Amino acid sequence: MQQLTHIRRLNDERGIAMVMVVLISAMLLLLSGVMVDVVQSDSTRANTTVQRGTALAAAEAGIDNYLSKLLDDNQYYLHEVAAGESTRQSGATVVSSSCSPTPTPAAWTGQSATWTYPNGKDQWCSLGNGYEFNLQITAPSSGSQVVDIVATGRKSGTTNNYRILEEQVRPSSVADFLMLTNSNYNVGATATTYGKIYAGENSTGTVKYNINHQGTAYGNLYAEGTVTGNPTLAGTPQAQIYTGSAGTIRAQIKTPINFSNFTTSLTDIKRAADLNLVGGQTVYDLNNSNYDVWKLTFNSAGTVNIAGCKDSGSNAPEDVKPTNCTTVNTNLAVPTNGAIYAQQSVMIADGTSTCGSPVITGNCVNGRVTVASNNDIIVGDNLDYVQTGDDVLGLIAANDVIVAQWAPYNLNWRAAVLAQTGARHSASSDGSHGTAVFTGSTTSNGSPFMDMFQTRVYNYDASLQYLEPPWFPTIDYAYTVLLYRELPAP
Asked: In 21-119, at which residue ranges do the beta strands (DSSP E only) sit?
């Protein structure tokens, strides 16, 4: 009986053990399934993380690529539809770039600085690593100089794990200053300046230039050397003085501005001028050794008259006005990409239009244009814009920008001026003229002066803060980031 009981107990224990084995096996199967799910989920999450991270890098690459274009041409958005940028439309104008087989921008032929992207993100540029980016750009508008860049990155051909970045940048240009000079700068007691003035240093940093301002300043004075002359500081907020000698300038301008870094290549402007053909002819690239100087006359209708002139005997064109001129083109439309180039000197003269405030009679610019000369530019006429904030003129001379002796007794002129290796100055210092009112920006490698006029007024053109002349140079580290953020993906 005891033996039978023992056998039954063993059988019960075996049964329990078998049940335990079954239960443990089931648990192991369950756990293995869970582990597989965990591993698969971790792998999926890891792949998603990699995709999202690389997509973000692709979006950053798109922004960096566009910024590099802006460094070369600070109005790139008005000239090109970038490779990878969505198809633009402005009115009836539709322009699309291409990225296959190579990234190729397309010329923006629209007349407007505003456009839409009716097809959404329809263009993508491959980075060669299985990822791509798309761009959408908002150009500056009146009252704002901000360029808004929206870049989307993704794995090529996918529709998920997008990353979208927005960056808003403000260009820093030579046109930000009323006067930017690589020399000492002197302002007389009868002069009033409205806008920032900067005197830099030589290329090795061994010579620091100074400002001697004896007049009234409504804008800050920055000198790598010193500021003397006891200027009257005016304005709201009141203008301030920042110098290198006292160490205060570094809190405002982190490093000295290096002129060699923003000298515009005249070759680039010449190339741009060659792209604008009229009747199959190159009309904006002026080069004829039979002429000593080209005469340009801007008309309020948005056109320019061009004539080739010979000097008056042995007299320089800034001293005696050339009258032996041959008409080359009349009522020629201001070029769409804003580039006019001349191998010889250029003079601005003989305008008959009316524009500006106060109203002037002379040259009236209707459009956005830069005139570049491989020699000098001579201003011999009143000069203004038809519409402030919409029109702009740049004058770039390889040598000097000169106000002619034969200019009006009282001169009112407006432009952004750059004298690359020379200076912006008057033809003489004889005080033979009355008042010169200048509105704009001046970059002068040499020491500028305007002593031909008894009274000089220098106004900074605030519209240059958002509307610079085409092809005008930027300063090193030219863009300040105002906004950088990630936008939600669709």
From this structure: 80-81, 88-90, 93-95, 106-107
Residue type, 326: T
Residue 94: the pLDDT is 95
221 in Cβ contact with 231 (< 8 Å):
yes
pLDDT of amino acid 312:
84
**CA dist., res. 450 & res. 55, Å (int):** 56
| pLDDT at 176 (0 to 100) | 84
Q: Which two tokens stand for residue 406?
A: 């034969």
How much is the pTM? 0.67
Task: Find tokens 């989307």 and name the residue.
Answer: 152
Q: What is the mean pLDDT of residues 275-291?
A: 92
Query: How far, in Å, CA of 338 to CA of 78, rounded?
Result: 10
Q: Which residues, other chains included, contact 209 with Cβ-Cβ below 8 Å and sequence gap of 6+? A: 181, 182, 183, 184, 185, 199, 200, 201, 202, 223, 224, 225
Distance, CA of 150 to CA of 371 (rounded, Å): 33
Q: Which amino acid, one-letter code, is at 15?
A: G
Tokens of 274: 């060659």
- DSSP for residue 167: E
Closest CA to 86 of 96, 77, 78, 76: 96
- On the question of pLDDT at 285 being above 80, the answer is yes
> 415: helix, coil or strand?
strand
Q: Rounded CA gap, 171 and 147, in Å?
A: 8
Q: What type of residue sits at position 47?
A: N
pLDDT tens, 325-376? 999 999 999 998 999 999 999 999 999 999 999 999 999 999 999 999 999 9
How many residues can be counted in the chain? 490
Amino acid at 286: L
CA torsion angle 443 450 374 415 (round to 10) = 60
Torsions phi, psi for 246 (to 5 deg) = -90, -5
430: tokens are 């004889």
Sign of CA dihedral 236, 239, 240, 243: positive
| Choice between 155 and 474, residue whose per-residue pLDDT is larger | 155
Spatial CB neighbours of 157, under 8 Å, sequence gap ≥ 6: none
The count of other CB atoms within 10 Å of the CB of residue 118 is 11
Q: CA 232 to CA 226: how far, in whole Å?
A: 16
Neighbours of 440 (CB within 10 A): 24
DSSP assignment of 284-343, as one string? SEE--TT-SEEEEEEETTTEEEEEEEE-STTS-TTTS---EEEEEEEEEEPPTT-EEEES
Instruction: Specify the range with the lowest mean pLDDT, choosing from 135-149, 180-194, 313-327, 398-412.
Output: 135-149
- Please answer whether residues 340 and 286 qualify as being in contact, where contact means their C-beta atoms are separated by less than 8 angstroms: yes
Nearest residue to 348 via CA among 402, 300, 303, 400? 402
